[in-house]
């Protein structure tokens, strides 16, 4: 099993690189998943999502 550390900040990324660990950045494909709700966007951010495509 491959384990990876969640990456939420630039500091988390730097720490993974220094330790030689694998990391994971949560990313959502398609902003349509927001359903036109900023509340949804804030919730996803709190849950760790850090990227989204705007298709």
Structure description:
- This is Sigma-54 factor interaction domain-containing protein.
- It comes from Brevibacillus formosus.
- With 55 residues, the protein is α/β, with parallel strands linked by helices.
- It has one domain (5-52).
- It is built from two helices and four strands, in the order βαββαβ.
- The protein has helices at residues 10-19, 38-47, and strands at residues 5-6, 23-24, 26-28, 49-52.
- The chain starts with a strand and ends with a strand.
What would the keywords be for this entry?
55 residues, alpha/beta, two-stranded parallel ribbon, two-stranded parallel sheet, 4 strands, 20% strand, elongated
Total DSSP helices = 2
* Weakly predicted, low-confidence segments: none
Gyration radius, in Å: 13 Å
| Total strand segments | 4
- Strand arrangement across the biggest beta sheet: 1-2
Strand content: 15-25%
What about the largest sheet? 2 strands, parallel
**Pairing-aware structural class of the strands and helices?**
alpha/beta
Distance between the termini: 33 Å
Protein name: Sigma-54 factor interaction domain-containing protein
Organism: Brevibacillus formosus
Question: What is the strand and helix layout of this fold?
Answer:
Elements: E1 5-6, H1 10-19, E2 23-24, E3 26-28, H2 38-47, E4 49-52
Parallel strand pairs: 1-2, 3-4
Summed up:
By secondary structure, the protein is α/β, with parallel strands linked by helices.
């Amino acid at each position: 099993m491959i384990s990876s550390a969640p990456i939420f900040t630039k500091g988390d990324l730097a720490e993974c690189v220094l330790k030689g660990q694998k990391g994971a950045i949560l990313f959502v494909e398609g902003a349509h998943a927001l359903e036109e709700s900023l509340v949804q966007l804030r919730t996803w951010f709190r849950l760790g999502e850090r990227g989204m495509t705007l298709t």
